[in-house]
């Protein structure tokens, strides 16, 4: 008998991971919202990736519920909710899950595992990282459009689950430096807002130098703050965060020549922030660009470009922000930086 795995927050990423594990033979329960349950009832659970792999489960094969009491006998609980919902998920786990269950956070942003631990003292809580995007396509698929391997905080408690993840084409890479891993992922995730405001696929966005210059500005600003905090973010792509802004600013023809082999992206791929805006959901910008602001403030510094990105995404959530060209978005971000520099000069 296989150990029961429960996905708390089985949206795009959660359902993709849960479906992959079930296809590999695991007993999986998905806990999520009615919207996804209705989608599965209509289409089944159809998965695909940028290598051309496809697989599916019929609707009757998927154990999808909104009842958290059913996680009582889970051996592994994967938390995949949006960061703003972490506290609610933790309270639900506290109320319904057995204390022996291993809890793995597969969420964007930093600090989610710490919040889970604070609510669940004495339980095994591990940080994890999902490097790839999962898009809900119009034909019902959950499509993995970018590359990368799952990472998990190294622990003896995760060892029994490693073979199942490997069989599911989702090998877990164990790391001991997980704060650095999460910040390395967050730096890459600063493109989520850029992609959402561009309203074009990731591959189309990154083919345009003006959008890449926006991302370079955000990463460069964030990287300086992360370094000041004594954090050495892990390299999440073949190009590390120190040199990535320089590469992103290259002319289109040279960028394509140098980066094409290192940035393999499916033409269908979009960011989770774009998907949230399309669905009318609140985004995770407070836990991405906002996390940069919080870290900057803790050091007595500012992050004006990331601050402006938070404001633009907030406007988009309220329906007040149309899509922006790369040039228009860059002007927005640069003006905030210029204003910050001017204010600093005046105050000094």
Helix/strand layout:
Layout: E1 4-8, H1 12-23, E2 27-31, H2 34-43, E3 45-49, E4 54-57, E5 64-65, E6 76-79, H3 86-96, E7 102-105, H4 112-119, E8 125-129, E9 134-136, E10 141-144, E11 150-153, H5 162-167, E12 172-175, H6 178-189, H7 191-198, H8 202-206, H9 209-228, H10 244-248, H11 252-259, H12 272-278, H13 289-298, H14 304-317, H15 326-347
Parallel strand pairs: 1-2, 1-6, 2-5, 3-10, 6-7, 7-8, 11-12
Antiparallel strand pairs: 3-4, 8-11, 9-10
Helix pairs in contact: 3-4, 7-9, 7-12, 7-14, 9-13, 9-15, 13-14, 14-15
Give the gist of this structure.
With about 350 residues, this protein is of the alpha/beta class. The chain is built from 15 helices and 12 strands.
Intertermini distance: 68 Å
Mean pLDDT: 94
Could you give the order of the helices and strands? EHEHEEEEHEHEEEEHEHHHHHHHHHH
Radius of gyration from CA coordinates: 20 Å
Shape: globular
* Count of folded domains: 2
Sequence of strands across the biggest β-sheet: 5-2-1-6-7-8-11-12
Residue stretches low in confidence (pLDDT < 50, at least 5 long) are: none
Q: Note the beta-strand portion.
A: 5-15%
Count of DSSP helices?
A: 15
The major pleated sheet works out as: 8 strands, mixed
What multimeric state do the chains show?
single chain
CATH class of the largest domain: Alpha Beta
């Amino acid at each position: 008998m296989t150990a029961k795995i429960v996905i708390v927050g089985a949206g795009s990423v959660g359902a993709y991971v849960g479906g992959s594990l079930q296809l590999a033979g695991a007993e999986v329960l998905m806990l999520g919202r009615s919207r996804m349950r209705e989608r599965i009832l209509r289409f089944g659970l159809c998965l695909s990736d940028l290598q051309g792999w496809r697989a599916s489960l019929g609707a009757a094969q998927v154990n999808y519920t909104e009842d958290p009491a059913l996680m009582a006998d889970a051996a592994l609980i994967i938390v995949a909710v949006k960061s703003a919902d972490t506290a609610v998920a933790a309270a639900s786990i506290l109320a319904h899950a057995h204390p022996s269950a291993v809890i793995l956070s597969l969420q964007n942003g930093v600090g989610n595992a710490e919040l889970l631990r604070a609510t669940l003292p004495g339980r095994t809580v591990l940080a994890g990282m999902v490097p790839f995007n999962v898009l809900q396509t119009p034909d019902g698929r959950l499509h993995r459009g970018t590359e990368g391997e799952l990472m998990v905080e190294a622990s003896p408690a995760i060892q029994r689950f490693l073979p199942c993840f490997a069989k599911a084409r989702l090998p877990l890479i164990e790391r001991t430096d997980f704060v650095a891993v999460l910040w390395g992922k967050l730096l890459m995730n600063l493109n989520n807002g850029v992609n959402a405001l561009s309203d074009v696929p990731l591959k189309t966005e990154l083919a345009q130098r003006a959008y890449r210059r926006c991302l370079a500005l955000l990463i460069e600003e964030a990287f300086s703050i992360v370094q000041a905090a004594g954090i050495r973010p892990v390299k999440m792509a073949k190009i590390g965060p120190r040199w990535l802004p320089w590469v992103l600013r290259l002319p289109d023809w040279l960028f394509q020549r140098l980066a094409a082999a290192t940035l393999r992206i499916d033409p269908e791929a979009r960011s989770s922030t774009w998907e949230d805006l399309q669905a009318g959901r609140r985004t995770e910008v407070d836990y991405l660009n906002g996390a940069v602001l919080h870290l900057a403030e803790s050091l007595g510094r500012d992050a004006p470009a990331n601050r402006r990105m938070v404001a633009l995404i907030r406007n988009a959530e309220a329906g007040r922000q149309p899509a922006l060209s790369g040039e228009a978005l860059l002007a927005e971000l640069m003006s905030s930086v210029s204003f910050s520099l001017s204010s600093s000069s005046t105050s000094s």
